[in-house]
Amino acid sequence: MVTQNKKVVTRFAPSPTGFLHIGGARTALFNWLFAKHHGGEFLLRIEDTDRKRSTDEAVAAIYDGMSWLGLDHDGEVVHQYARRDRHVEVAEQLLAEGKAYYCYCSQEELQEMRDKARAEGRPLKYDGRWRDRPASDAPEGVAPVVRFKAPQEGEQVIDDHVQGKVTVANEQLDDMILLRADGSPTYMLSVVVDDHDMGVTHVIRGDDHLTNAFRQAQLIKAIGWDLPEYAHIPLIHGSDGAKLSKRHGALGVDAYRDMGYLTSALKNYLLRLGWAHGDDEIISEEQAIEWFSLEGIGKSPARFDFAKLENLNGHYMREVESNDSLAAHIRGRVENAIERPLTDDEMAMLVATMDEFKPRAKNLNELAESTLFLFAKRPLSLVPKAEKLLTDDARAMLDKLVVQLEAIDNWELEALEEEIQSFAQVQDLKLGKIAQPLRAALTGSNMSPGIYDVLIWLGKDESLARIRDQVA
């Protein structure tokens, strides 16, 4: 239930330590759809407080991935590291109010604490030894951390839109660090402050952050701010139910683009990974915005299935994308393969071939590859099966055929069919005996669309030149 009379504000907050992975893309999509559905705002925050692992290349990859998916954000991008002074300010406020304290524990003491807890079968948590000690006990020359004085009694309750009502006893949560010994703010503090200052009303993220939500709720209440509404989404698993790995599909969004998947198909697939609207499978962006709700998110982990993604991508290629759009999508792939730009005439030919090629292609790479023979350099390189078709007798037959084809003035389907059928009768040959060697000469392969289509696409000059190359 969305709070009445309150503008919805969601955020996507990736860490720039690598590519925009598929799980992050789904989280971004759900946040984007929820904001769009409610006429709210979708914000982007780069959580770059880990300076050693954060890179400009990773930030660029996040921008690129979101742009390709069409997940446009509102307002300026917020960089968490640039707001560190504001985070420190809040920690100092908590210190002044007695809601945080300096902790002078050494690493050795903390390790002893953990070892003892482990030996006694207790949770590995800080024991609060500096919680109420006076400043006069502080050892000289030791830079302290600042810890949050967490409540020790009662419980934290999260009314989660996906997980339902989830409760944890406060005694199970220790006093988390807010500022490190060097004075830098921790992730837990920074997230709370940024979400508040950005006006985030709904925190929609993976359920691996559910434990964080309890700690963050403690901190939010101590500061005196309103809690956002939470929705913790089950993670994506592999098709075998195991944790998602690269072999399952835990790749960057850029990898799916490189593999030839359409943006529209991938977004539709990600939408259905853990969210449902009845039995609907093919869902347009407009429908997704209209229908999306947090109540539609399931509680069980979704399973990533490449076969389903391929089938969905094939559907979008056949039924949704226009031929002009498909040709534009594969243009760069074709040009990279032939190492030259396509001419306007060649682009027109590419568009004209889409109806023939797209039913058999599962992705843009396959689609592009199937068209490459149209733009191949002469003389064509022949695959072994095509070479076997071009016997001495077959080449002699093509030598005769090229003379008759050259006489055709109207290079169109009816004229080509009539001429080749007439040639077959005169030579006392079945059409297959002509079509197979002719296909090899025109395409360099033993497989291609209908031979008349190939002749028309290539045009008279190119068709005759390719045949002559093989009979010379």
UniProtKB/TrEMBL annotation:
**Domain (Aminoacyl-tRNA synthetase class I anticodon-binding): residue spans on this chain:** 343-469
Record-level GO BP terms: glutamyl-tRNA aminoacylation
Q: Which residues bind ATP?
A: K246
Query: What chemistry does it catalyse, as a reaction equation?
Result: tRNA(Glu) + L-glutamate + ATP = L-glutamyl-tRNA(Glu) + AMP + diphosphate
Q: Where is this motif: 'KMSKS' region?
A: 243-247
Give the subcellular location: Cytoplasm
- Show the InterPro entries listed in the entry: aa-tRNA-synth_I_cd-bd, aa-tRNA-synth_I_codon-bd_sub2, aa-tRNA-synth_I_CS, aa_tRNA-synth_I_cd-bd_sf, Glu-tRNA-ligase_bac/mito, Glu/Gln-tRNA-synth, Glu/Gln-tRNA-synth_Ib_cat-dom, GluQ/Sye
User: Gene Ontology cellular component?
Assistant: cytosol
Domain of life of the native organism: Bacteria
Q: What is its main location?
A: cytoplasm
User: Which SUPFAM superfamilies does the record match to this protein?
Assistant: An anticodon-binding domain of class I aminoacyl-tRNA synthetases (SSF48163), Nucleotidylyl transferase (SSF52374)
Reply yes or no: does the keyword Transit peptide apply.
no
Motif 'HIGH' region boundaries: 14-24
Q: Which UniProt keywords apply?
A: Aminoacyl-tRNA synthetase, ATP-binding, Cytoplasm, Ligase, Nucleotide-binding, Protein biosynthesis
Q: Name one GO molecular function term.
A: glutamate-tRNA ligase activity
EC number(s) stated in the UniProt entry for this protein: 6.1.1.17
Q: One Pfam family this chain carries?
A: tRNA-synt_1c
Domain Glutamyl/glutaminyl-tRNA synthetase class Ib catalytic intervals: 7-310
What does the annotation say about its assembly with partners? Answer: Monomer.
What function does the entry list?
Catalyzes the attachment of glutamate to tRNA(Glu) in a two-step reaction: glutamate is first activated by ATP to form Glu-AMP and then transferred to the acceptor end of tRNA(Glu).
Give the matching NCBIfam families. Answer: gltX_bact
Could you say which protein family the record assigns here?
Belongs to the class-I aminoacyl-tRNA synthetase family. Glutamate--tRNA ligase type 1 subfamily.
**Know the name of this protein?**
Glutamate--tRNA ligase
User: Organism, per UniProt?
Assistant: Emcibacter nanhaiensis
